[in-house]
Known about the structure:
The structure is a single chain. The chain has helices spanning 20-40, 63-79, 90-98, 111-122, and strands at residues 3-5, 10-14, 50-54, 83-86, 107-108. By secondary structure, it is α/β, with parallel strands linked by helices. The protein has a single domain, classed as STAS domain (Transcription Regulator spoIIAA, 2-Layer Sandwich), CATH 3.30.750. Helix 1 runs parallel beside helix 2 (63-79).
Amino acid sequence: MPITEWSESIQIAELQNDPSFAEDMASLVASYQRAADERKSGRADLRVRDAILDLRHVQFLNSSNIAQFLRVRKLAYLAGAQLRICSVSDRIWGILLATDLDRIFEFSEDVTTALAAMQMARGR
């Protein structure tokens, strides 16, 4: 997965279809797990980046992918990071609506809009 470190505090993850999707999400889980563990132990030395999940290349999601979204969301929250999903196709949007994920994630139309929303939310 190409992860672009857009700034010191924001990364952009350009997700792909499986099997890359599962590997890419596992990478995000690992980084947020480390940060959440650090924060829980009171050693918040590790700088955690907010993430924009760019889905423009994702054409399908299965139940495992949905579980990975939820895991990343939970760990990012525990680590003190924001997540924002963008560039969702109509097909993927239908899946997100059917699973009620549209109610728990933040969405933007594209990467540029997601960056602006994230920066405004953090007051940067």
